[in-house]
Amino acid sequence: MPDTEYPNVYTMKVAVVGVTGLVGTVMCKVLEEQGFPVSEFIPVASERSVGKTVQFKGKDHTVISMADAIAARPDIAIFSAGGKTSLKFAPQFAAVGTTVIDNSSAWRMDPTKKLVVPEVNANVLSAEDKIIANPNCSTIQMVVALAPLHEAFGIKRLVISTYQSFTGTGMQAVKQYNLERKGFEPQAEEMAYHYPIFENCLPHCDIFLENDYTKEEMKLVHETRKILGTDKMGITATAVRVPVNGGHSESVNVEFERPFDIEKVKQILRDAEGIAVLDDLENNKYPMPLYAKDKDEVFVGRIRRDASIENGLNLWIVADNLRKGAATNAVQIAQYLLQHKLVGEAAMATA
Ligand code: A2P
Known about the structure:
By secondary structure, this protein is an alpha/beta fold. The chain folds into two domains: 12-106 and 326-350, 3-Layer(aba) Sandwich (Rossmann fold), CATH 3.40.50.720; 138-320, Dihydrodipicolinate Reductase, domain 2. The protein has helices at 22-33, 66-71, 83-95, 118-121, 137-153, 171-181, 215-228, 262-271, 289-292, 323-339, 344-350, and strands at residues 12-17, 38-44, 53-56, 59-62, 76-79, 99-102, 114-115, 131-133, 155-165, 234-242, 248-256, 275-277, 298-306, 312-319. It has a six-stranded parallel sheet, with helices on both faces. It has a six-stranded mixed sheet with strand order 10-9-11-14-13-12. Strand 5, helix 3 (83-95) and strand 6 form a beta-alpha-beta unit. Helix 5 (137-153) packs across helix 7 (215-228). The longest helix has 17 residues, at 137-153. The protein is globular, with a radius of gyration of 20 Å. The structure holds adenosine-2'-5'-diphosphate. The site of adenosine-2'-5'-diphosphate has 16 residues, from helix 1.
């Protein structure tokens, strides 16, 4: 992520809801790294964690309850505490004037809420948006790569296969993996999945739906269409949980409306914001989760024509799911709001 300039007269009261969780922890780290101008840091988690301390910018902060956090009227609340928590509490924060950036799936498909990947569609944001949805991790990295290609050649259809890290399921999945890796058999209540994740692949991310797809697969369908502003694009997906400790990979087969030149595709990707092309076959260089770890870019490689269809392309897309797939994207939304004076004191000053 590039260094960011902020309007220096403005400072922000920032709540991180779900601060003790995997994504919450990375959100704090990204806020620190980006020098986001936090005048007051408000760490929030469930009643279980109230009174515990978390570190932010080298200082200890005491975790407080939702009710106390709402009473503190933060300018921004970045949520990663699950859909139910978000459905219940995001409107309560919004009612006291807080802008909520929510990482759960609760609001993503609500037609009154914006679903934002800053490189693609930050321009849809306004000061009136009090609950803003952060897309699903797999969707974020994919649309960063696809948006500039869609603009150039028009995407007709996508066939997606994902290889998703267990860290995307949260703390419990990490505990399950670590127990299994050390040779222990987790108790039923310690299992995040129906089966072992160590030395295994689970074609089952989130719950199964009536159409026999998983909810994760349908998030890729619906969220991609919403962000790219089309309801026509054909999209089909298979989402697989893999024993990778951080980082989602995706094989994406693209069918364009219009013919393309493969060198032009590579150039468009190289020039696009937020993307690093890693496609040097002679030197065996291609994107991998290990390489993407702790980085903010979306890595794209294995860029090649699919000769089995007209206007077909294959891509391999990898990103750190806890960073660009969650925390970094949320912080980038907050940065955009602040830079464009759409939040807190800055918004009021321009109202
Ligand atoms: P806690 O640690 O107190 O349970 P993960 O997805 O990594 O498991 O993290 C989930 C995060 O959401 C944790 O910080 C968790 O807090 C928080 N959380 C879960 N339920 C609630 C709730 N009802 N209110 C506030 N925070 C919650």
